[in-house]
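User: Predict the structure for this protein chain, please.
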Amino acid sequence: MSTSGKTYPTMLTIAGSDSVGGAGIQADIKTATALGVYAMSAITAITAQNTHGVRSFVATSPEMVSGQLHAVLDDVRPDAVKIGMLPDAETVRLVADILRRYELRHIVVDPVLVATSGDALSHEGVPQAMVQALFPLAEIVTPNIPELRTLTGADNADHDFQAMAHRLIATSGCGAVLIKGGHLGGDECTDSIVRASVPAVSVTSPRIDTPNTHGTGCTLSSAIASHLPLGFGLDEAVRRAHAYLARAIADGAQYVIGHGHGPVNHMWKTTNSL
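Assistant: Here is the predicted structure, written as structure tokens:
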């Protein structure tokens, strides 16, 4: 086959499938496509969920996760990798080993431990396996506030999120932690990039009052991963991803999908041009 011709910026997403389409693999592929990036996938779990919550999930076997990853990576080298739901510790370690073997870069880890609805999406031992095996490979880790507390062992009375982020960096060796403001109150939503030895970098936008927030964490992390192959440094990739998500939430607030927490509008650029 000829290898000449144009190439796409590419992103590989390793995550679970969301049957209602607002989060997980579906959100990642929509986000990458909207941003002009070619998305590939390895599905780690199949969930039965809707806008009200997760009814059940079945983990993809480690053998099948491995098969998907090797099939893609033996043929295409992705410019960035986004990692979402990893349902068990064995899968976490397997994915980390494969990423290390192929020497992949621009790895964005969204440690999906709990859905927006509050439903658990991983088994016991996953947080520890992530910290030990996966986070050392990550350019940035993007936990929400409950996940940040779980990963650092902090209790609900602790509100020093930057200290938690620094602890996570120190214990795991990840490049940076993004403290997401979605679970915090106030009229604004602020995301802060925390690194080991430099001041935090923050980006803020007005908070939008809407129930349509299903898949916001998946969308943000995949938008960061999609901007990195486009030539942006990490800080600018986060800024642009934050702006993309803010617009997707604002535009999605106009629509009704289901009767619970609806999705954001990943394709706002397209729908607004019709």
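The chain has a mean pLDDT of 93.
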